[in-house]
Amino acid sequence: MATTSYRYLLADLITNQILAELPLTGVSFGQQLNAAGTMSGHLLLSGVNAAGLNVLNATIPGRTAVYIDRNGQLVWGGVLWQREYSSADQLVKLTAREFLSYFERRRITDGTGTAYGALAYTGIDQLQIAQSLVSNAMGAAYGNIGLLYNQDPLSTATSGITLSRVYYNYEVKTVFNAISDLSKQINGFDFEISVYYDGGGNPAKSFNTYYPRLGVMYSATNPSAPVFELGGNIAEYNYLEDGSKAINQIYALGAGSNEGKLINIANDSVKLTAGWGLLEDQANYSDITDPTVLSGLATGQITAVSYPPITLKIVAPPYVNPTFGSYEVGDEVRVRILDSFFPNGYDAIFRIIGLTVAPGEDGPERITLTVTTGTY
After folding, report:
1. Are 210 and 190 in contact (CB under 8 A)?
2. Residue 102 phi/psi, 5° resolution?
């Protein structure tokens, strides 16, 4: 079994200057599809030179970036949001979230400071709108965290899907929510902020968009297609069907108010005529003024959640094929299970929507994949 080495680098969020490399323990970090994964870890101050390691200045929440290096490659990056110290056990606990979380804290304006100003897009490719929203946020004073765009060779800059959007200043909508809404419509896309070393060996980050989706679709004709099987490369699993998330009729609420509010209703008539009870919900898109766009969002939501999604959490040894690093969030995998819960066997294609890694400084790495049959 090959030795796995982890390094934990902390940098200034704006300048990206490395401030410290800390010997963190108890680390766990995760990635999520179209969302910000979380990292946690702690540092025991007894027995270390805290001043020499620059612990206090290098772990300021809200202005520090965290990068995780695995065997010389960056595998995770994000913003440090919480720091907690206990004098009783001399333990500093750190919590960070991937760089997308920064854009949960950034708001859309046109920079004029007037309530009725707006950012308007007419007939613009959806991926270009997403990048423009990020660029606008980065262009604000003190708002540039050094992102590049579409540095992943597999990412795409255009999709051929054009949209019209108006983001009014008075809505002060978050950049993340606006991009997330764009991605959820029919013919939507996936997005992420990836981390890597640049040509000079410095940590770098890129906002990437993917159309029609991130990751590789499963193919039985591909001999290297990932297959996870209980008794082989699945150490254990957890199986969840969640009917509380199922919706077969949705009310999408657009711009306007009272009698003038734009509303679109979408339902899954196949499920309803097959005997399912009516399961309703609503979604708010106050910046949407185009009825066609609102209809697409409503239909996309129904497509994603009209059947109770099946979610599996799979614990997979990182050193058994498929090895950790040969698959990523967004990929499709095949799962086969034969046990007392599935006595006749279970064989299905799932999509990886999240993964969590525990480096295991006192033992082997532990990889937990979150996979689902739902539409994401």
Report:
1. yes
2. -60, -35
First to last CA, the chain: 35
Mean pLDDT of 328-357: 96
Q: pLDDT tens across 169-179, in order?
A: 988 999 999 99
Higher pLDDT, 376 or 95: 95
220: exposed, middle or buried (C-beta count within 10 Å: 0-12, 13-18, 19+)? exposed
Detail the DSSP E strand segments found in 36-185: 38-44, 64-70, 73-86, 91-98, 118-125, 147-149, 162-168
From its phi and psi, is residue 243 left (phi > 0), alpha (psi between -120 and 50) or beta?
alpha
Q: What is the pLDDT of residues 150-160, one digit of tens each?
A: 999 999 999 99
Amino acid letter for position 2: A
- Which tokens belong to 159? 């999709």
How far apart are the C-alpha atoms of 251 and 271, rounded to whole Å? 17
Whether residues 170 and 39 share a domain: the answer is no
CA nearest to 79, candidates 13, 144, 17, 16: 13
Identify the three-state secondary structure at position 179: helix
The total of structural domains in the chain comes to: 4
Residue 273: give the domain boundaries.
Answer: 246-304
So what's the pLDDT on residue 2? 61
217 occurs within a structural domain: no
The alpha carbons of the chain give a radius of gyration, in whole angstroms, of 22
- Residue 78 CB coordination number (10 Å): 27
The tokens describing 297, both together, are 């969002």
